[in-house]
User: Fold these one by one.
Assistant:
Number 1:
Amino acid sequence: MSRTAHETPEWEIAPVASTSLNRGPDGRMALTLQITRHEKPVATAPLRLTVAEAERVHTALCHALDQEPVPDNAPPCRKAIQYPGGRQRF
């Protein structure tokens, strides 16, 4: 059975918008995720990452966002930096 663009997924996992990334006493970072089924909350769970794992996720997201326009409310790491010689880097 294939899904159409109008159907909602049976299961979805997404960051909880009202929480931020926390660092635990062991140095790992934890991002709270909301698990839903048929758009109804089922549970929340922390995604715990080591610094190395967080760096890999950060790198993957940077590459994925590279061609996307930068919104006005983007964090500083998404804003272009003008370097001497006219080069732009992110």
Number 2:
Amino acid sequence: MDLIYISSVIVAIFCVFVAVFQVLLSLGYPLGEFAMGGYYKVLPKKLRIVSAVNALILLFMGFIFLQHTKVLNGLGFLSTNILVWVITIFLGLNTIANLLSRSKKEKLIMSPLSGFIFVLCLFIILL
């Protein structure tokens, strides 16, 4: 296995981890201080829906990187070249947003997490 292969598996694992977190938020678990600015301990219903959608997007993101690096070949017709750039840019912006959050918990936990995934994604697409 090469470093790109391992990096994409790690990206996918972390995407699943954050997707599970988003599902917990969508189910009303009191983890809201770690997400979306930390304004709510338990997210209101509208934001729970956003979290559920975020979970699906995160799973898709992990899948795209696995497909891009040929770990999986599920949707061979789907070109991943542009999608990996979009995802990586999104993760960079997400890291900045987490750093600017008023929530100390979001800054301390989610910023390094999204930053780590961003760096791995950048590594994958630049090599």
Number 3:
Amino acid sequence: MRKTTTKATATKAAQQLDQLLARIALDHLFIETLATRNSDSLDFHDVSVWGVKSALMAAYQAGLTAGQNATSKATDQPAQQQAA
């Protein structure tokens, strides 16, 4: 049962990451979807260097926030649960 829970958690985390990346692409690069559509005109985009920088900064900040959240969750758990 634990493997199922872990797999479901991993799937949910992957979906959340996909949504985050799609949001960054839309907000900073004006790319509507990150899905491959097998068409050069749909899969390749001209973007500004300041848009790329902004998107990278947003992704970096999201990573920092995720790391801080993971660290605070780990330190909030009692030592007995961490050992289990």
Number 4:
Amino acid sequence: MAARNAITIIQKSKPSSPEILQLRCHIRPGASKVREGVAAVTDESVELCVAAPPQDGKANKAVIEILSETRLQILGVAKSDLQITHGMKNRDKTISIASACFRRGKDAVDDEDLVALVKQKLLSEEAS
């Protein structure tokens, strides 16, 4: 069985379609407000703690808010650029982000640098 990476870039079949950056996350709902944020970044997943309970999509909404620029500004992207694509009713989720959000206003960044940039942002949040 092949190991899955926590952060991957998915190339679209059409050259005109944007690339998608995928984060594989494990969510810990019901955490205290103090622990909210990135708990760990491993090779397989990004572990996030959210204070919201896992009912009626509250934890899913909290995950998007934590990763977006709204509260903790971990990734610094708009909420509309983030989408939970797998795991809506599961603690293991896949979150998709258009890679163009990270490339706006910057010189061309290759895929490896983009993955490293996102991982660095997540790790810096984990340390704080």
